[in-house]
Amino acid sequence: MSLNKAVITGKLLEDPETRYTNSDEAVTRLLIETGENVKLKVACWRALSEQAKNLKIDDIVIVVGSLITSSYKTNTGLNRKDFEVNAREIYQLSSIPQSLNPIAANNKAANSGSSPAVKETKLKNTEEDLSDVLLSEEEIPF
Predict the structure, then answer these.
(1) 84 is a domain residue
(2) How many helices (H) and strands (E) does the chain have?
(3) Which range of residues forms the domain containing residue 78?
(4) CATH of the domain at 46
């Protein structure tokens, strides 16, 4: 069991970029802005990658995954560290932020090469189903 879990909400800053590894596995990279000048890279693999490549710039998404780091040395000799979210699930928020549209989930079925597994959600597209998640202006604590 891993304690490394990241849940990120943000806006896509550019259209997804899909590439394929030498073993023909799809990987789609996203760049998400989560706040003021906070940008995160997201990697989507296999079936999730095939679904994520249909996202578009300015889409609002929720990404569930784990945070990974990589270290490297630049040409000038400086040590650098990059952070990236390895996505397991992605939800696309519609233009009305009261509904969640599941994209897909990386689960055992998706990783085994079988048909893509779509993440099912029990939420309906109504305000009352999301009332515990959404705050009214009166409930904002500042």
Answers:
(1) yes
(2) 2, 7
(3) 6-139
(4) 2.40.50.140
Looking at residues 41-54, what average pLDDT do you find?
92
pLDDT tops 80 at residue 66: yes
Which of 2, 48, 52 shows the shortest CA–CA distance to 31? 52
Position 27 pLDDT exceeds 90:
yes
- What pLDDT band is residue 102 in, cutting at 50, 70 and 90? low
User: CA 73 → CA 67, 78, 113, distances in Å?
Assistant: 20, 5, 35
> What is the tally of structural domains in the chain?
1
pLDDT for residue 93: 85
Instruction: Write down the pLDDT at residue 35.
Output: 82
Query: Is 1 part of a structural domain of the chain?
Result: no
Strands 26-35 and 79-93: unpaired
- Structure tokens of 9? 């909400």
What does the block give as tokens for 44? 């989507």
Residue at 49 is within a domain: yes
Alpha helices in 20-119 (DSSP H): 46-52, 108-111
DSSP character for 137? G
Residue tagged 């689960």 (tokens) = 107
